[in-house]
Amino acid sequence: MSRIYPTESRRCQEGGPYAVISAGPSILTVWNKSSMAFQGTDGFSVFDGQGRLVFRVDNYSRKNRCIAGGVVLMDGAGRAVLTLRPQTLSLRDQWNGFKGDGGLGAKRGTPVFSMRRRSFLRINDETEVFMGGLRNRVQAPDFQITGSFRRRCCKIQDSAGEVVAEISRKRASTKILLSDDVFRMIVQPGYDCELMMAFVVTIDRIFGKPLTPAMCS
């Protein structure tokens, strides 16, 4: 574990929900592994610069997305932050994010965001994000994810092209590169860590590994 989380001191500000925005860039270490200890779980464990668990996604299935249903992004204490659900019959693999556990009930309301592939052609890992949900065909995206998430080398850019978060492979030292299950995300000031992490989980569901862990529900 001492090699998983970073030693940088910059992190999202303490106090209240972890969505509080820090004065400087927030550096998170993302481990593509559930915080649940038993073998076969899937998900994410996210640490701040002090090695504290600040976000988690536990034990979700990689079965057919229409069967598996949604995914819940939680804070370190297990409180639901955002619920992510696939859009039925979407040609671009659209997912919608709802505040808290609002996506689990029959009445979901307006999504916080919608994410989908940038193209019908599945030739890259690029996606586009629409805050408040996708309302019409000519709507311009609020964020775009460019690069390759599967290679852990991508950027989240706003509508003006400014980089608001960046994902890269994690190094334990200058000579040791960790596996692609562990990567670093730097979130620029003025942007919520929880929203950027929700984008990461959604990208993983769109472009992630096709396997289904044996013990997942």
Structure overview:
This is LURP1-like domain-containing protein. It holds the Pfam family LOR. InterPro entries: LOR (IPR007612), LOR_sf (IPR038595), Tubby-like_C (IPR025659). Belongs to the LOR family. It comes from Cinnamomum micranthum f. kanehirae. The chain is mainly beta and 217 residues long. It has a single domain, classed as Porin (Beta Barrel). The protein is 9% helix and 32% strand. It is built from two helices and twelve strands, in the order E-E-E-H-E-E-E-E-E-E-E-E-E-H. The chain has helices spanning 65-68, 193-207, and strands at residues 26-31, 43-47, 53-58, 71-75, 80-86, 95-99, 113-117, 127-131, 143-148, 153-158, 163-169, 182-187. Strands 1-2-3-4-5-6-7-8-9-10-11-12 form a twelve-stranded antiparallel β-barrel. A hairpin with a 4-residue loop joins strand 4 and strand 5. The chain is globular, with a radius of gyration of 16 Å. Mean pLDDT is 80; it is low at 5-21 and 210-217.
Strand adjacency order, main sheet: 1-2-3-4-5-6-7-8-9-10-11-12
CATH T-level fold name: Porin
Overall pLDDT level: 80
Structurally, how many domains make up the residues? 1
Main β sheet profile: 12 strands, antiparallel, barrel
**Number of E-type strands:** 12
| SSE string | EEEHEEEEEEEEEH
Class from secondary-structure proportions: mainly beta
How much strand? 25-35%
Oligomer: single chain
DSSP helix count? 2
